[in-house]
Amino acid sequence: MLILKNVRVLDVNHEHDDGRYSIVIDGDTIREVTREPVSLPDAQTLDMGGRTVMPGMIDCHAHVIASVAHLGNNSRLPNTFAVLRAVPILQGMLNRGFTTVRDAGGADYALSKAIEEGVIAGPRLFVAGKALSQTGGHGDFRERFDNSDPDPCGCNRNLGAIGRIVDGVDDVRRAVREEMRAGAHHIKIMASGGVASPTDPIGNLQFSVDEIKAIVEEAQSHQTYVMAHAYTAKAISRVVELGIRTIEHGNLIDDATAELMARHGAYAVPTLVTYDAMSKVGAKAGIGESTLVKNEAVRIQGLRALEILKRHGVKIGLGSDLLGDMHEFQSDELSIRAEIVGAFETICQATAIGAEIVGMEGRLGVVAADAIADLLVVDGDPTQNIHLLTGQGERIAAVMKAGAWVRRAGF
Q1: CA–CA separation, 216 vs 189, rounded Å?
Q2: What CATH number does residue 317 fall under?
Q3: How many whole angstroms from its chain centre is CA 283?
Q4: How many domains does the structure of the chain reveal?
Q5: Residue 115: per-residue pLDDT
């Protein structure tokens, strides 16, 4: 049993609360959060000196196996190399205060299980397995003159590959069933053109209506949901009406589509930092000119999209979507958003809303009784200075995951 006393609590339920609390932690779970004195036999008590304690953050759109900046080239890595290069990426995320990550294509159940069993250090990992892409879609990284078969077996198990190519209702049904059998927590589809793929303009619609209906039906049959890569208003409205639960990126959304999302209860996961990082270091990292042009076209629109989503009351999770060496910019997503929606709302997006998205509402993303003890200890108030949470976690005094200290200093 552990008691953290004399703390200021910051979460979705404690915005302007400067009171001092004690947090009682039993194993991996918070048992009590109280302003009353607590004394328990055999409990270790730590006086936190008025530091802020907040939930561990949740990144709802990451590619933890994407150690190469050119997204398609990750599929060329041998599996062992892909895993070993993912280890420092995962460790870096945890040190930055991201105790939970939803992978958006690539990572598998074995990687999630290795973290759960303590084989490697990393955030709690919810995986999509391989994202589903149609031929010529955002998951098809062949150049125009490359007519090779990108996935001879139709079930790409190369760990570095972000996705697999499937066409037709029967094939997409089989693909969902295979990913679920292999341990996926949710399903990811490519529903529009993308930035990092060579032959699909942003405005493309991908997968037929019948294919998407089949994917959603299969996911729901497995008691889970579908997340969809989609940029344009047309692509977003199309898939939301077909039952997609979370929209990834969404940079080119309009007011009517945001209102539709709110009405259907769909979540948005913008990934603003990836465009910012790519504009800064993409060319140096070997990103092609055509990709950089597409990136710039959606970067500014992404900032406007966040305002539109907020105006219509769409629930928004935090995502980063970074690749290669750009993973180090993950926490900059917080400061980019805070300029638009404010620091407190940004923190709620990175905690409580993220918990809803991964199906762990009340268990993650809050400092409350019965929640898992994923906690950050911060010197200062992040609602007044969001940069306390940025960088590589230098200003986060301690990180706790499931009741165990990942690291701590000064107490």
Answers
A1: 10
A2: 3.20.20.140
A3: 25
A4: 2
A5: 98
* pTM of model > 0.90: yes
Query: What's the confidence (pLDDT) of residue 142?
Result: 66
Residue with tokens 């950089």: 292
Whether residues 47 and 70 share a domain: the answer is no
Looking at the structure, tell me whether residues 286 and 186 fall in a common domain: yes
- The residue type at 234: K
pLDDT of residue 141: 66
Residue 376: CATH number of its domain: 2.30.40.10
- Which residue segment(s) compose the domain that 389 sits in? 2-55+365-408
Task: Indicate the DSSP class of residue 58.
Answer: E
Nearest CA to 325 among 272, 274, 249, 396?
274
For residues 140 and 200, membership in a common domain is answered with: yes
- Are residues 62 and 156 located together in one domain of the fold? yes
The rounded Cα 348 to chain-centroid distance in angstroms is 14
DSSP track, 172-234? HHHHHHHHHHTT-SSEEEE-B--SS-SS--TT-B-S-HHHHHHHHHHHHHTT--EEEEEEEHH
Assigned token pair, 243: 């039952």
